[in-house]
Amino acid sequence: MGDTCTETSPATTIRVDLHDGTAVVRVTGEIDMACEKPVRAAIFEQLHQRPAGLVVDLTGIDFFGSTGIQLLVEAIAHAQRLGVALAVATDRRAVLRPLEITHMSQAVVIYPTVQAGLDALRADGVRADGVRAARHRSSAGVA
């Protein structure tokens, strides 16, 4: 595992780690209009490096508004175009509820932990289009 970047703003901290070729973008704090740009930059920078997979870690998010949803929509589409498998890790209601309400929980595979996301990507359980090969979701859309 190699720490490649840490960026901090008043409401958000972003850290990028590599795990055997799979990138993990860890975001803690808030994702809203005021702090979206550095989060977007970190995710898209990792996608452009075409890792084996990308886990967007939202397990430390306290606020996830419409800006965060839009960011995920764009990241999923970009990952699909590049052929990079993408998964989201979170067990936080602040993230899960908006994703459920907007049906985004059906557009991306959500795991309760980063390790679960890493394991699934390594096992090729998630295709490059972000869809789980064998869908076994709970009602919350969490793997």
Quick structural summary:
With 143 residues, the protein is α/β, with parallel strands linked by helices. It has a single domain, classed as Transcription Regulator spoIIAA (2-Layer Sandwich).
Per-chain topology:
Elements: E1 2-8, E2 12-19, E3 22-31, H1 36-48, E4 53-64, H2 66-82, E5 85-89, H3 93-101, E6 110-111, H4 114-122
Parallel strand pairs: 3-4, 4-5, 5-6
Antiparallel strand pairs: 1-2, 2-3
Helix pairs in contact: 1-2
Domain STAS: 12-121
GO molecular function, one term: anti-sigma factor antagonist activity
Pfam families: STAS
SSE sequence, one letter per element: EEEHEHEHEH
> What proportion strand?
25-35%
Class computed from helices, strands and strand pairing:
alpha/beta
Remind me, CATH topology?
Transcription Regulator spoIIAA
- What number is the mean pLDDT? 85
Number of helices: 4
Query: Tally of extended strands?
Result: 6
Largest sheet: 6 strands, mixed
Low-pLDDT segments, ≥5 res: 130-141
User: Can you list the strand order of the major beta sheet?
Assistant: 1-2-3-4-5-6
- Using the coordinates above, name the CATH class: Alpha Beta
Instruction: Indicate the CATH architecture.
Output: 2-Layer Sandwich
- Helicity, as a percent range: 25-40%
Radius of gyration: 13 Å
**Name of the CATH superfamily:** STAS domain
Number of domains: 1
The end-to-end span amounts to 24 Å
The best one-word shape is globular
Pfam families: STAS
GO molecular function: anti-sigma factor antagonist activity
Domain STAS: 12-121
Family: Belongs to the anti-sigma-factor antagonist family.
